[in-house]
Amino acid sequence: MAVAGTTGSGNGVAAQTRDALRRIEAALGQVGASLADVVRTRIYVTDISCWREVGNIHAEVFGGIRPAATMVEVSALITPGLLVEIEADAYLDADAYLDD
Questions:
Q1: In this predicted structure, what is the pLDDT of residue 73?
Q2: CATH of the domain at 78
Q3: Cβ-based neighbours of 66, under 8 Å, separated by 6 or more
C-alpha cells in the first residue's frame, strides 16, 4: 500500500511532522494496516537544517519499526507554510488482508 504525500497542520516543522505521521497512521488503519507494516518513508522538507528534528520525531513515532527512510530538501511544497511532506509504503500480506 502506498500512502501518497501527506502533510500535517500546525506551527513549525515538529508539529507538522507529528500530524503528517498521525494522518499516515490513520490512513493505514483504514485498510487494517499499522505503522508496523511500513517498509519505507520518503520525507520532503523545505529546510534541510531541520533534518535532525524531523528525523527524531520519525524515530520516536516509529519506535523499533525502523522503515527505510529518505529525506530530501525541496524548494517548496504545494501550499505556502507547509514545511514537511511524507510518503509511506507499507507491505500488506494479501492473504491476511483478503481474509478480513
A1: 98
A2: 3.30.1330.40
A3: none
pLDDT tens digits along 59-68: 999 999 999 9
Render pLDDT for 67-78 as a digit per residue (tens, 0 to 9): 999 999 999 999
3-state SS, residue 93? coil
In which domain, by residue range, is 42 found?
2-99
The pLDDT, as a whole number, for residue 97 is 56
- Structural domain total, the chain: 1
For the stretch 1-31, what's the b/e string if a residue is b when 16 or more beta carbons lie within 10 angstroms of its beta carbon? bebeebbbeeeebbebbbbbbebbbebbeee
Inter-axis angle of helices 51-62 and 13-29, nearest 10: 30
